[in-house]
Every structure is written in C-alpha cells, then in structure tokens.
Design a protein that fits this description.
It is a single chain. The chain has 17 helices and no strands. The protein is an all-alpha fold.
Length: about 475
Amino acid sequence: MTSPMASSRPPLSLATKLAFGAGDLGAAITANLQVFFFMVFLTNVAGLSAGLAGSVLMIGKIWDAVNDPIIGFLSDRTQSAKWGRRHAWMVYSAIPFGVIFFLNWWVPSDHQWVLFGYYVLMGILFNTVYTAVNLPYTALTPELTTDYNERTSLNSFRFAFSIGGSIGSLILAQVIFQVVENQRTQYLLLGGIAAVLSVLPIYWCVWGTRAQVQQFNKTTPTQAGTTLPLTAQLRLVFSNRPFLFVMGIYLCSWLAVQITASLIPFFVGDWLKLTPADYTQVALVVQATAMVMLFVWSAVSRRVGKKAVYYMGMTLWIIAQAGLFLLQPGQSLLLYTFAILAGFGVSTAYLVPWSMIPDVIDLDELNSGQRREGVFYAFMVLLQKIGLALGLFVVGQALEWAGYISSVAGQPPPVQPDSALLAIRLAIGPVPTLCLIGGIVLAYFYPITQSVHQEILLKLHAQHQGDTAS
C-alpha cells in the first residue's frame, strides 16, 4: 500500500492549487453580495417591510446553522465510485446553487406575505445548496495533501480566491448600478452574472483536483461501513483537545473581524465624519492587503511555523485595533495605515486556523481509525456563523444601551451623544483587541507543531500498513 505520508506523494502542482482555490470563488461572491445588498434589496426593491425582511434573514441563518453538521455527516458517509465523497456533492449541487441564488433577486409579487413566503423558501433552499457545495469543498484539503506546510500553501490559494471574489463582487455591483437605471433590473442582472461566475469555478475545482482525490481514496481507507452514529461522532469531535483549541482560535479571530466590520460604518461616519465612500475604500484596502499577505504568510510559515505566523499577524492587527480607538476626526491617513495593518492580521485569521484543521483530522484518524473531515469542517463553518450572529448582537445591544440615535430617511444624520460615540470607539478598539489576545493565548497552547504532526503521519503510515497486511 502506498504511504499516506507527504514524502510518498509528489508536491501539488500550481494548476491543482489554482483549481482548489477557485472552488471558494462562488461561495465568496454569493455570500458577499448577500451581506452587502440583500437586506436593502428586500426592503427598498422588493418592498418587504423591514421586520419581515429581518425575519427572512433570521430564518435563513438558523437553517444554515442546522444543515452544516447534517451535510457534513452525510458527506462523510457518501460513496461514489466516480466522484468520491466530496466531489459528488459539488458536481450535483453546483447548478441548483447558481439557479437558486439568481431566484433570490427576483420579485414575484407585490403582496407582503407572498413575498415573505417566497424569500423564506428561497433562503432555505439556497442555504441548503450553499452548504452542499461549500462544506464538502472545504473538507477536500486533507484529501489533497498530508504535508504540514503544503496545507498552509493550499489554503493561501483558497482564501486569495475568496477575498478576490469578495472584492470583484463589489466592483461588479458598482458597475451594474451605474449602467442600469431600473432597480429590479439591476439586481436581476447582478444575480444572473454572479450566478454564472459562481458555478463555473466549482467545476474547475472538481476537474482540477479529481486525480489527487482519487489517489487519496485508493490509498486511504474510509471505513464507511463502520461509521459511528452522529451523536457518537460529535462526542469524539469535542473530546479532541487540539480541535477545541483551533475552534477557540477561530472564534476569537472571527469575532474581531465581524465586530470591526459591522462597526466601521458607524465609526467612519459618526466619529470620523467621513463619507460612505471612505468606508467602502477602507474595506477594500483591508481585503486587498489580506489577499496579498496570504501568500507572504504562507511562505513565512514554511520557515517559522503556523503558530509564529499567527503571533506576528495578530500583533500587527492589535496595533491597528488599538490605533482605531485613539484615532481622531481628520486623521484619514492614519485610518488607511491601520487598515493595511489590519489586513496583515486578517489574512492570518483566514489562513492559520483552516491550515490547522487538517492536522487535527489526522490526529482523530490515528485515535479512531476513521476519516471524519465532514464533521470537523461542519463545526468550523457553524462556528463562523455563530461568531457573526454573536458579534452583530453584541454591537446592536451596545449601541442601543449607549443611546445611539438611528437615522431617518430623507433627514440629515443626527448628532450622536458622547456616550454613543464612546461606545463605538470602545467596541471597535478594546473589544476586538481582547478577542485577538485570547486567540494568541490559545495558539500558544495549541499542541500540534510540525514535529508532532510528522509523528502522527508516521504512526498513521504504520497503522495503514498493518491494515493492508491483515
């Protein structure tokens, strides 16, 4: 039997890494457009009341969280001689993924409850096919390579496409909004183009990684017939100590991301007295810097390790967050300087936790004799969604408690009380900083170093050889 160790498998080619990275492009485009535009589309274009629009989003998010562990569990048990466990889900879900995303931007009626029912249905269907495409995709990483450093490199390609898709989707929307006047036509065109751009890279990913995944399936036993019940698998997942550390690192990092992202409009507009265009530009600076730094940090990680890279990125990010608290109106140059520093850190929030998860899965296989990527990745994705919901809830409650005055359409922006301005500054500075410090502490105690991972691979190799001999 061929050894699963990195030494027996050739390094991944650039074409394979590009194909793998492209698999996250559709998820990034669709998710980013929904985050930035779906709420305003429901209220200002479809004509749904704000309360019903919020309910649509809430129901979709609840179902999105529920279906992650279900589809992760099912993908682990999937058997397809032609496509394998992960590619089968991606191939058959890609077209529905694009079609349903497009239908989210169609206005079928002017009746409130018809609209509500339609968008709830579309939300449930879209979040189902989104997970069916994206979760098996994320679980491909440990099937493509067992090399400790190559996994970091692989994820740098993934998140370069992810951030690039987010940036590209914003640019596409601005172009369409400037060229097309009718609002309903704007969003239908945006949804149609984005759907095509989201589906095609999924098939690129499947065809570009198929050979490597087939080789993995031939040399690594999946033992699908002895898969434990879901409840037993969950107990094992949460008894995996390194996985709990990775979950904590990821939660701390993404809480900082989500809290900062949700507060930037308030901070830029109400405290710094700048325009919405400045907010968009700041967001683009952060994303562009993060995309470039993915490849820099990946190269550095080969020399100093994942934990050291995380420390460096978090340190720069902490400087940026602390600097935001001290920033005064009129200091626009410093704002963009801090945006660049934050981009250095945000890239490590993308790169490092997702590079650690495959190593955790290898340890679980050593302990259990089974590959359960779907369950581990499901809870990583679920955790990100919990972080988003928690971050937005905390922000909203803090602003309300501090006396923040909401804007009224057609009226000048209100002058915010000092208590609200202080709450904005505290929430965008010290609060994310504490989250980032928590991530550094957890990373310090994370036990799987490069040398430890090599020992795990050696033991796995011996285990597989024993299985073959028997």
